[in-house]
Amino acid sequence: MKQQILGFIGAGNMAGSLIGGLVSDGFAPGNIWVSDVDAAKLKDLESRFGVHTSQDNQVVAGQAQVVVLAVKPQTLQTVATGLAATVQQRQPLVVSIAAGVSEAALERWLGGKVALVRCMPNTPALVKTGATALHGNDRITEEQKSQAEAIMRSVGLAVWVEREDLLDAVTALSGSGPAYFFLMMEAMESAAIALGLDQATARLLTQQTGLGAARIAIESEEPPAELRQRVTSPGGTTERAIQAFEAGGLQGLVEQAMRAASARAAELSRQLGG
Ligand SMILES: NC(=O)C1=CN([C@@H]2O[C@H](COP(=O)(O)OP(=O)(O)OC[C@H]3O[C@@H](n4cnc5c(N)ncnc54)[C@H](O)[C@@H]3O)[C@@H](O)[C@H]2O)C=CC1
Ligand SMILES: O=C(O)[C@@H]1CCC=N1
Fold this sequence. Notes:
Number of strands: 8
Binding site for NADP(+): 9-14, 70-73
Family: Belongs to the pyrroline-5-carboxylate reductase family.
Bound molecules: 1,4-dihydronicotinamide adenine dinucleotide, (2S)-3,4-dihydro-2H-pyrrole-2-carboxylic acid
Radius of gyration: 21 Å
Domain Pyrroline-5-carboxylate reductase dimerisation: 164-268
Pfam family, one: P5CR_dimer
Structural class: alpha/beta
Binding site for NADPH: 57
Strand order of the largest sheet: 3-2-1-4-5-6-7-8
Largest sheet: 8 strands, mixed
Number of domains: 2
Strand content: 5-15%
CATH superfamily of the largest domain: NAD(P)-binding Rossmann-like Domain
């Protein structure tokens, strides 16, 4: 993998995070090529990581063994159809990180048979704590599977799902999930201010509590329900708060929200080419 040429089409936030992760994992920047229509984005990645750049997508796709499609979903059809001839001729592994664009649409746009991995990453990839789910079509080899996984693992956790449609559930969970935690943090911070704390203190304590809870959950063998019980002294303060959450139907509300997100992911896939 480390000897191969890796090409990124699109030099935005996610591409920058993935390249940063790969370079800090020891992937040679000289083996990374990036294209974008925006020269400033390319200059930035060139100066931060020492990668090669071009404003021509063909230059990148024309030499990479692995091509990562990192443009916005709405731009992907134009970009992919523009690369079809090169991809059909060279048959690289194509990795798409675009939300809501199906493997069928990608294959169609790329002119037919292609080894393809579709991923759903999330924004914590920016700080190397991303969570990505991957799904590959039946044309990928074991080596290509490892290559795609290594790219996504360079910025966090990477797991495979067995069916492509499960990426809609993943989108509702880890793709959109950071926003749910931020919403909870917003609500906790506001409530703390209402209880008399100043904003800076409320924010700091909220942030550290989120970090601490996430670390315990990751490092412990116990399920979240058990960890919650440990905070909840009988007849104490947490119990009262949990009773209020339950009375407000928090669990049902979370399920409703995630079903809505998953349905929207499926709808977007249909709108973006089926
Ligand atoms: N940001 C997020 O939370 C997540 C993003 N993704 C996916 O990652 C992909 C990239 O997202 P971001 O990096 O956030 O977007 P971004 O907007 O930062 O980057 C996209 C880049 O594509 C470039 N571009 C536009 N047209 C182009 C063309 N014809 N040829 C080459 N480059 C072109 C733009 O100049 C821009 O630099 C999207 O498909 C998105 O669905 C997936 C999960 C989470
Ligand atoms: O909100 C969205 O549609 C995208 C997909 C997952 C995170 N952001």
